[in-house]
Write a structure and sequence with these properties.
The longest helix is centred in the C-terminal third of the chain and has 20 residues. The chain is of the alpha/beta class and about 220 residues long.
């Protein structure tokens, strides 16, 4: 991917004309660096990666993976959760897995996540409390471990990791994910992005002895 200008852009003072000008400059740089890129992606998409991540502005998946437009199919929400009744997320995941045939699913959280920090507190926040219930469930399920961590930043960082691992477990309990893993070796990766270093960290998954309770229509669980 071509380098962007080194100076950070002050978006607080930007007009829409400024943004359009930056887009034009970006398109020109991309065109010079990869003359065929827009022609290729203009004819369709065939990404190999599905990224499920946080909405946080500091975690731009294509940039941090050093990839180009068209290489990552993306679903993002606050605190990178997988709610069982989120039809938008589940539909996007199904499309990525069954139609686009992605080969890798990355579920990525990040340290210093505002959603996880909020879920550790007791302050009423309004509508978002309904969404953060997903993360508070993770907090409740791991309360003893989290309460034993005295440093607030370390406790929040651990909740970030536990949340990612929990959401991956939920994702792998979806029948079409399980079937893709079994039939064509789809890979599901739990990761955390460190916004202070720019580096990704691969986590170990939870062992899931209860998966069979959730896999309606799936089969042959002996290998899992």
């Amino acid at each position: 991917m071509p380098d962007r200008p080194a100076a950070l852009f002050d978006s607080s003072k930007a007009s829409v004309e400024d943004l359009l000008a930056r887009n034009a400059a970006w398109a020109e740089r991309m065109q010079k660096a990869s003359p065929e890129l827009f022609k290729v992606i203009g004819s369709g998409q065939s990404p190999k990666i599905l990224w499920i991540g946080c909405s946080d502005s500091r975690v731009p998946e294509t940039a941090l993976l050093d990839l180009n437009p068209g290489e990552v199919f993306v679903v993002r929400n606050i605190a990178n959760v997988v709610p069982n009744m989120d039809i938008s997320l589940l539909a996007a995941v199904q499309f990525a897995v069954e139609v686009l045939k992605v080969e890798h699913v990355i579920l990525c959280g990040h340290y210093n996540c505002g959603g996880c920090i909020a879920a550790l507190g007791d302050k009423r926040l309004g509508l978002i409390d309904n969404w953060l219930r997903e993360v508070r469930d993770v907090r409740a399920a791991n309360r003893d471990e989290l309460d034993a961590i005295k440093d607030d930043k370390e406790r929040a960082a651990r909740l970030v990791e536990l949340n990612v691992k929990t959401q991956v477990r939920k994702l792998e309990r979806v029948s079409y994910i399980y079937e893709a893993v079994k039939e064509r070796d789809l890979k599901v990766h739990p990761m955390v992005f460190d916004v202070a270093t720019g580096k990704l960290k691969l986590l170990e998954k939870f062992k899931d002895s209860q998966k069979e309770c959730y896999l309606q229509g799936a089969y042959d669980l002996s290998a899992h």
